[in-house]
Amino acid sequence: MDITWEDFSKIEIRTGTIIDAVDFVKAKKPAYQLKIDFGALGTRQSSAQITHHYKKEDLIGKQIVAVVNFPPKQIANFFSECLVLGVYDENNQVILLQPDKAVLNGQLIG
User: Fold this and answer.
1) pTM score, two decimals?
2) Helix or strand or coil: residue 98?
3) What are the phi and psi torsion angles at 104 (to 5°)?
4) What one-character DSSP code corresponds to residue 14?
5) DSSP state string for 25-88
6) What are the backbone dihedrals phi and psi of residue 8, each rounded to the nearest 5 degrees, phi first?
7) What whole-number distance in Å separates Cα of residue 70 and Cα of residue 81?
8) Are strands 13-23 and 86-88 parallel, antiparallel or unpaired?
9) Measured between alpha carbons, how far is residue 43 from residues 6, 16, 31, 80, 81 in Å?
10) CA 57 to CA 87: how far, in whole Å?
């Protein structure tokens, strides 16, 4: 299905830096609870099923790309406030989308 530029402009995709990552023990599938710094937008939390390719301690300081204007989504006892973006590999495991150079947190993707 095609979308319009107006549709796309409604999606707020921004850069952020992961500042904390812990195991999400109540998730149905292995996941981390992430805390992400989006600069002037503040910090947001997200649940991410990225345990296959990433150790939680290696995620700290990593820049990511996320949709920040979804309403919060409750997952078990946790509220995810943004959607961290990634691509599925050949085994259906998520690989994070990241800027290839450091950018300011909160920068708009467009």
Assistant:
1) 0.94
2) coil
3) -70, 145
4) E
5) TTSSS--EEEEEE-GGG-EEEEEE--TTT--HHHHTT-EEEEE--SPPEEETTEEE-SEE-EEE
6) -60, -35
7) 7
8) unpaired
9) 27, 9, 19, 12, 9
10) 21
Position 110 scores a pLDDT of: 78
Break the chain into its structural domains and give their ranges.
5-101
Q: Three-state DSSP class for 5?
A: helix
**18-50 per-position pLDDT tens digit:** 999 999 999 999 999 999 999 999 999 999 999
The domain defined by 5-101 carries CATH number 2.40.50.140: yes
Q: Which of 40, 30, 36 is nearest to 16 (CA)?
A: 36
What's the Cα-to-Cα distance from 105 to each of 23, 54, 72, 87, 98, rounded to whole Å?
24, 21, 20, 21, 12
48 vs 70: CA distance, rounded Å: 15
Q: What is the C-alpha separation between 40 and 85, in angstroms, rounded?
A: 20
